[in-house]
Amino acid sequence: NAGVTQTPKFQVLKTGQSMTLQCAQDMNHEYMSWYRQDPGMGLRLIHYSVGAGITDQGEVPNGYNVSRSTTEDFPLRLLSAAPSQTSVYFCASSEQGAGATEAFFGQGTRLTVV
Amino acid sequence: ELKVEQNPLFLSMQEGKNYTIYCNYSTTSDRLYWYRQDPGKSLESLFVLLSNGAVKQEGRLMASLDTKARLSTLHITAAVHDLSATYFCALDGAGGTSYGKLTFGQGTILTVHP
User: Fold this and answer.
1) Are B102 and A108 in contact (CB < 8 Å)?
2) Interface test with B, best of A105, A107, A109, A110 (most B CBs within 10 A)
3) pLDDT at residue number B46
């Protein structure tokens, strides 16, 4: 059981380039989300999805797009990379519904924009 | 808007000592998580707390939740070096409904010295 898989693990982009960070989960979870982690700021929510075809913005959505065409996949697109987007990005998934369900995180993508 | 504040942000402990990390939050929430993160790694789920008065223990770590005070604590008993890591609290379900969109505290960097 792979859980949440993110690719790539590391990426260097030039300012203005675009790219897509991939996230896939094999647990049939309805909820998926993207976070960025910057030193001293914890993790901040970029976008989230409550199911296929449904996405919404989080705290820091500017410069990022998402789509959710399947339950399994939730890619994050950087439209025109900026140095301020240098960060570590985490994708997470969790089950819908009540109960003590944990949120599972991918291994992260370390992105540097030069 | 949900705000989550942890303190302390930095904690240097001697092995064998006890200490508590505090997590205060600003609005009602559906569930509270505690995570551990080692340097360069992803987040590892420690506890999920759902209801007022919930207490969970795993090894030298014990987490509790007081929803009336909007406070969770992570208590460390007889610290050992292996507990050195960054600890985050995070809340889902601001306003009472979980959507897999977590709001994180800033994190507490714990260092345990011999």
Assistant:
1) no
2) A105
3) 96
